[in-house]
Amino acid sequence: MRMNTDGLIIKEHRMTGDDRLVTVLTRDYGVLRAFVRGAQRIKSRSQSGSQLFAYSDLSIYRGRDAYVIDEIQPKEIFFDLRNDIGKLALAQYFCELQYELAPQESDAGQFLRLTLNCLHLLSKDKRPQLQLKSIAELRTLSLAGYMPDLVACAGCGKFEDDTMYFCVYDGRLYCPDCAEDIPCEEIPLGVVTAMRHICYAQDEKLFSFTLNDENFKVLDYVCEKYLLAQTDRKYKTLDFYKSIT
Ligand SMILES: [Zn+2]
Question: What DSSP designation does 149 have?
Answer without folding.
Answer: B
